[in-house]
Amino acid sequence: MIVKPVQHVFAHLSGQDDNLGDSALRVAYLAALRGAGRHVHVYLGGATSDYTAGFVAASDLTLYDGRLEWADAEAAATRPVHAFNAGEINPRVGGFPVARRAAECARVLDEGGALIFAGIGIKDVDNLRGVVFDPVMRSASVMSWRDQGSRDGAGFGDYAPDWAYSEGSPVDEWAPADQRPLLAVTLRFDRAWPGAAWISSVRRFAAATGSRIVTVAQVSRDAPRAVRLAEALGGEYLTPPSMRHDDLDVYVRAVYRKSLAVISDRAHGLIIGATEGAYPIGSGSDPQKIARLLTAVGLGSLVGRYDEFEEFAARFEAHLPGLAPAISGARADVADLTARIGAAMDAVA
What we know:
CATH architecture of the largest domain: 3-Layer(aba) Sandwich
CATH topology of the largest domain: Rossmann fold
Structural class: alpha/beta
Helix content: 40-55%
Strand content: 15-25%
CATH class of the largest domain: Alpha Beta
Number of strands: 16
């Protein structure tokens, strides 16, 4: 019997150490890269144990502490698959990826391998003057952004929703709205304080919906703000058992499964909440990124500045029925992207 050789996939999956959203989207990306006959070599960027805890060890995975060792393994592989890191990029004036990374990608294609760009998004699509995207991206086996604004700003490729939409509870297991007693709030530590009018609006919204305000922090640096928000809103800060990403993921999802809505300027606070049935209300001082990521799945109607919250609250009930279809559609789109990636890998196996 002829045994098919193992296909070696090289995935760069580093992210912010203390940011649950960064590991969540990459865990989902990793799932799309795995499969029968494949071995995935994962570089996590020298991350701490909090971040790496989100990635469960398995026989089909090899985790690398050093990028040089990871790159050497790729160079030694026959027709490798190179999976460029997913998530947010912030390209500067000049070429993207940088010359060394672009050459690494080009070598994979030259050697008959597959090159995957999937689930990347531009931080600020209005700040691309002087940015030159390397031609290797247009030659990739799969070139998919995570929102239309990023695709349009770059001028090539297609787009599908963020990887994190594929996770979470099945829609048919969600508790109905009248059995969700909480209103979850989580805000970034590095943005302007929302102000007294916003605080009052959120408290009125909680009263109108009969929900109890709780605050959470998916990013450890957000915890002091979550504590302050709980005090200002007359709510409760819910402290996780630890900031290890495996513990934190279980904890915040349990909160969101009991929440009618999640109010946040954190993209993955909104996305993870939505995948557990909590309607995402995007509210922030600079909501352009969260608007793009939610609009990609048809959930951008209640996303805007702090001073728009009162209007969103008034329209909230009318939008509730659209959450489940939006998440189901997002998961179908991510499944289609996963199938395309699988086909591209199979073509060079």
